[in-house]
Amino acid sequence: MDSAPLLEFRDVQKHYRTGTEVVRAVDGLSLAVEAGEMVALYGPSGSGKSTILRIGAGIETPDSGAVYVEGEAVSGLSGKAAAHYRMHVLGWINQESDLLDGATALDNAATKVVVTAGSWRRARRSVVPLLEELGLGHRLEHRAETLSMGERQRVMIARALSLNPRVLLADEPTGSLDSRRSREVLALLQEATHSRAMATVLVTHDEHAVAYADTVYTLQDGVLHDSGPDAAPAPWA
Ligand code: ADP
User: Fold this and answer.
1) For residue 23, what are the CA distances in angstroms to 31, 48, 67?
2) Which site from 113, 115, 154, 204 is most exposed, i.e. has the minimal number of CB atoms within 10 Å?
3) CA of 19 to the centre of ligand 1 (A)
């Protein structure tokens, strides 16, 4: 049997109806992402980026088409299968920081792994090397609200990577960062994608992402367009 791509969107469509108007948020999207490949979907606000990631994460069900991981459908899952997918297969990085203020960097990074580790002590121990690798070894006991935006973003990356996901979905991971921090985060995601052989999709309107992704597509009105790795920033950038 031919091996399926690690992550595949096959002819995915999602339209929203608001009153008499139909918004074609995702319009026949097909996309294959191999293990160790970071794909950037680059597009302006309203082009369908977040909808694509929500469908990939199983949070939203497409009108038609499906998303597959190693040939198994993961869109439209419910109950235990959906929970297992989100917990063990998927790493998810939000646009907005959703860390718990008042809890330390270490505890925030450990919130996913504690479910499987059985104790906070074991969970904390298991994420320390990850936080150190991400340059946060000196911030382990600092409360989330005292961290810089770049540090908060790295805690979210540590949490997303903590259970060794096969698929990493990142929604505007550099949206709130200055250009230096943005490059650092993109380099971290690139390195993690390659070394962990994950299929990574990041959606962004950050032109820096173009240089770090293995494959870049532009997205407009829910439709993908090919762009080479040297593609010039789009006119809206
Ligand atoms: P992006 O992430 O690129 O900004 P989105 O995926 O959030 O784009 O949205 C794509 C289009 O779908 C936009 O026109 C948006 O207004 C519309 N849209 C997204 N979610 C909904 C919804 N729940 N109901 C109606 N329209 C929506």
Assistant:
1) 21, 10, 21
2) 115
3) 15
Q: Check: CB of residue 76 under 8 Å from CB of residue 144.
A: no
Q: For the segment 171-227, what is each residue's pLDDT rounded down to a tens digit? A: 999 888 888 888 988 999 999 999 999 999 999 988 888 889 999 999 988 898 877
Interval 31-45: pLDDT, tens: 999 999 999 999 999
Beta-carbon contacts of 227 under 8 Å, excluding residues fewer than 6 positions away, are 42, 210, 216, 217, 218
Residue 83's CB: how many other CB atoms inside 10 A? Answer: 12
- What CA–CA distance (Å, rounded) separates 23 from 131? 41
Q: Pick the residue whose CA is nearest to atom 14 on ligand 1.
A: 46
Which SS3 state, helix, strand or coil, does residue 51 take? Answer: helix
Map tokens 């790295």 to a residue: 154
- Does the CB atom of residue 78 touch ligand 1 within 6 A? no
Could you tell me the distance, in angstroms and rounded to a whole number, from the CA of residue 15 to the centre of ligand 1? 9
b/e for 117-128, b at 16 or more Cβ within 10 A?
Answer: beeeeebbebbb
The answer to whether the beta carbons of residues 39 and 31 sit under 8 Å apart is yes
Three-state SS at 127: helix
**Which ligand 1 atom is at minimum distance from the Cα of 18?**
25
Looking from the CA of residue 53, the nearest atom of ligand 1 is 6
Whether pLDDT at 52 is above 80: yes
